[in-house]
Write a structure and sequence with these properties.
Length: about 210
């Protein structure tokens, strides 16, 4: 950090000034240096890049706390989930509702979360599959993986996919997340059922976040 206050101090709390542009308020006055300048309160109006040491140390302590929380979250995720689950969760494929799909499955899980799966068919094969969910990270990973692997499969092949297959494709899930894989597989089956029966595409209700 560069000290360049030239021995000058914050007009509000009296601590040394730093050469940093911040829009956060002074710890004492609640005003930023920029605001102090606008109101014509004197010398600080010529230097909007100044911020007092109190503010800077408070900010760096906050930065350190955020970094520590982020590090802890990543560590916990790695201890709980496989690398594949983490990758699918952070970079989900096929996420989004499909316009004009050939089939839709919408299932509400017992946990309160919802999964939607959309299929576009080419004859009896799945040409494209997308998903949407308001569920947890593992559910996102399950939707991403499932909609990827079914592409090009026939309905008969897809119907044979079990929860355990999806869990295995993700290199495992913790016990408490197994139902997320079940939700994804059940939703896919629901979509296939609609497709096979030639049923009308269900309209999404408001509480599923639908249109
Ligand atoms: Fe509800 Fe994962 S916790 S689907």
């Amino acid at each position: 950090m560069v000290w360049s206050g030239g021995g000058r101090t914050c007009p509000h709390c009296g601590s040394p000034l730093l050469d940093r542009l911040l829009s956060v308020p002074c710890i004492s006055s609640g005003r930023t240096q920029r605001e102090a300048g606008r109101t014509g309160s004197g010398r600080e109006s010529n230097n909007e890049r100044e911020v007092c040491v109190n503010q800077a140390s408070r900010e760096s302590a906050f930065d350190r706390m955020v970094e520590e929380i982020q590090r802890q979250i990543i560590e916990d995720e790695r201890a709980t989930y496989s690398q594949k689950v983490i990758e699918e969760y952070y970079n989900p494929k096929n996420l989004g509702r499909m316009s004009d799909p050939d089939a839709v499955g919408i299932v509400h899980g017992w946990c309160g979360d919802t999964m939607e799966i959309y299929l576009r068919m080419n004859g009896s094969r799945i040409e494209e599959a997308t998903f949407m969910t308001d569920g947890c990270g593992p559910t996102v990973a399950c939707g991403s993986k499932l909609t990827t692997v079914v592409r090009g499969m026939s309905l008969d092949q897809v119907y044979q996919i079990e929860q355990a297959d999806l869990v295995s494709a993700l290199d495992g899930l913790p016990e408490e997340s197994l139902h997320c894989a079940e939700l994804a597989v059940n939703t896919l089956r629901e979509a296939i059922n609609h497709c096979e029966k030639g049923e009308e595409i269900p309209r999404l209700s408001e509480n599923t976040g639908g249109e």
